[in-house]
Amino acid sequence: MTSAPDWAGEAHQAGLLSVVELPATPGGETAEVAAPSLSLGGYVAWLVVADAGAAVLGALGAIVFRFGGQAGSINGIAYPTLVPVFAAGWVGVMWLCGTYDRRMLDSGVEEFRGLLNGTVWLLATIAVVGFVAHVQVSRGVIAFSLATTTVLSLAVRYRTRRVIRRRLRGEATIYRAVIIGAADEAEGLTAHLGSHPEGGFAVAGVHTPCPAALTTGERIVDILAAVHLHGANAVAVASSSGLSASQLRRLGWALEGTGLRLFVVPALTDLAGRRIRVRPINGLPLLHIEQPEFSGPKVVVKRAIDLVGGAVLVAVLAPVLAVIALAVWIGSGRPILYSQARVGRHGRQFRMFKFRTMVLGADASPDEQADPGAEATPVRRKAQTDPRVTRVGRFLRRHSLDELPQLFNVLVGQMSLVGPRPHRPFEVADYQEDDHRRHLIKPGVTGLWQVSGRAALCWEEAVRLDLYYVENWSVWLDLLLLLKTLRAVVLPRGAY
Fold it and tell me: Against a cut of 0.70, is the pTM above it?
């Protein structure tokens, strides 16, 4: 095994961890299954009630906004009497879009995407029904109701996810799993799950591959005995389990009606779900792995977002830029800006701009920038206490405000708002072969590395995050990372 496979965190949320649904078998033999310490049933019930309440508040607010103290009517029916219908329709659409599926509660952006899809479907349904039934519904009421209800439901789900993840980062778990696989792979999986408790998994035990001499029935009995011995409620079959396709199918049959979940950990890692397509051929499911997109319409959209977003940010932040420039000038004189050679897309060099945060002549001793206690990596890690950093510069670095001039790099096309961080030429010279894949897209002002811990991350983890972004980037992911960047600026971690 070359690295710890990612089947929690981003990879788990993206669908890399395949879940085999086990239908209940009436009258089948059941086994004692340890109950999870965190049951999601209560959270699902809460979401249903909260969504209904959000719809009621949204509809009533729209009526008041549109008609004031008077209650309008539609075909002789007062709008307030239709509020329960709207609430029921909202909850029904959310159910049809799968937002109440327990697996959706920890699926990251997919949960929010399902809610937004439900909003569009409900709007389309109202429009079609109104057209067919010749009902003139106030467009102001509909727009205000859907907008308010969507915002309230998103806020409820965001808060619910925060509560669930807080409990999972404590002692709570959703799945107590027994890993079926070789010791080295099980060790990597256990370590990764321990560092990503938000996935809801805890390793209850490890069962090494059964001897090949055993029959299929004996192998399954051996596995079930290990599961019951560890009091698990899930079975995770690793790629090194030694089970054939038919044996894995028989294991699924044996788990029917037991309440145990079956998870299959593939050998593929760091692939987002949108790049994975199942192509069944006469009962044989083939995984079609889409190639990463580095050209085409999506790249045009990304560039358009960079231009519009960069221009808007420069205009909005112009007073902030002016204040920072004045603070740098008063604190340590000129120059106010600092430029440095960095390596961008396809290995092309460019000058990246920042507000100057160090004393003049700091480049004369570049070796002092490295953390003396840090491990040897191509990129030198900054020392947490560098005497060359000015007092103003320390504040700017802490809140990433020194990076704001890079918006001009974005406008001229050298950088993107979101992407891997660019490194210096002498650092790139020490890259390993895989590290150069970071240069397949433009470097970014922010990215997965910045919102996940920055300098607090080890080099291997930083590279893994950058390569994950390169392989799986999308407009949705960019927007999500931009929102997370705001939180990282307000609540910095690993920035110095």
Answer: no
